[in-house]
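Replicative DNA helicase: structure tokens wanted.
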Amino acid sequence: MQLQIERAVLSSILFDPEQLDFIAESLVAEDFSYPPHQNIFSAMLELRHTERPIDEEIILGLSTKARPIAQEEMLNILSTSPISDLKSYVQEILESSTKRKLHSFAMKITQSTAESETSSKEIMDYLQSELYKIGNVQQMREFRDSKAIIKTTLEYVTEMKKRGNNLLIGVDTGFAGLNKMTTGFNKGDLVIVAARPAMGKTTLVLNMAQRALDTGRGVAFFSLEMPAEQLMLRMLAAKTSISLQNLRVGNLQEEEWGNLTYAADVMSKSPLFIDDNSLLTIHQLRTKLRKIKTKHPEIGLAVIDYLQLMSSANNKDRHQEVSEISRGLKMIARELEIPIIALSQLNRSLESRSDRRPMLSDLRESGSIEQDADIILFVYRDAVYKQKDEKEKEEAAKKENKDYKSTYIPRNEEEAEIIIGKQRNGPTGTVKLIFHKHCTRFVDLNNSNPTLEIVYEQTSQNTQTQFMPPQNEEKNPIDMPQI
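Answer:
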């Protein structure tokens, strides 16, 4: 049966060579189960690429020792009636090809586990990589005509109109100005948040994750740098306005213990899932995220902290590895229809410039990241550099036995800039925020723009400067949190 299906497809190409363009969109030579058919299809592709006629005599003339093409099989194909509707036949060949690959995959599992010199981690990475390739076989997708596209586009515009011209259509970022410029983070978006160390990029995405939780969305957080407990401490500090340092050492007043207990109870019920495995490949991430998304469909945001700490399953040049990771993240975002936020480091070279505000070229291994990202945000706090410069001047003066009086005055609240370096579907620009250092939290900068004020009222009603339990609601007594 399978041989007849394959012969019918090849016969149809010989009868009408224009069919090859359609078939080649979905099939490769290895998808045919019978080696002679693989060789014939490969020869047909070669003729198409060299713009020569696809004819049985010319195909037989391409027979080589490495790619033998038997005249007997050509006669079998020519004696098979061509078909007009090839779609179902091509789909059947693809289905059979996938099953063969899965069978081969099962054999590889047995073979890999029998090799004692190979570690279990290496086996898992390799097998996940292979399964990833099988699962991402390109499926047939025909052109959509303008009538169908116009219909779905107008349906989208109508739906947006029903929302009352709301500027926010994606996941709420938690910041009014950022919502206005981005309309939120949308399904399938890959969002890169990049900064030099100590600028607060992890804090920013934790604040964004908290906002997603407050609006009823689940969050999957992959932390390759920091344990889950440290992330939770930061979220609790931001939520309660208690100093992070005091939380770390347990130095809390009675009222703060009450606020912390209430906040801990709220957070314990939130759909937040943290994976703090420091060794993570793009294939493992895809597997884990698909699994948690299937189990918890409410997940509407995924965060990776941070991209450069990830690895691919194969040993490659670092630029190739990062390219595979960034492309993989974009594909996962589209497949699961959720935005993915990935943190990224910046090159040290920007610190030698007079204006240290980041730009796209400062992204480490920037080519593929810049290409795959839908939105690229840079976090910049000028106060970090001012403090660093003053400290360097003070140390230099000390070495020369000179007195130096620093003019820098540390502040608990500092201005921060979120620079939109790239946005595929919107404007670029800068959004100013205020950074609360003691409780690791970014908040909106007061703005007299009435549009921003309206958006703020609509989107930030659950965000308070200080988290307090409702006064008309009894606290749910739970054990004191273990810090």
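The chain has 18 helices and nine strands. Residues 166-376 form a domain with the Rossmann fold fold (CATH 3.40.50.300).

Cheers.
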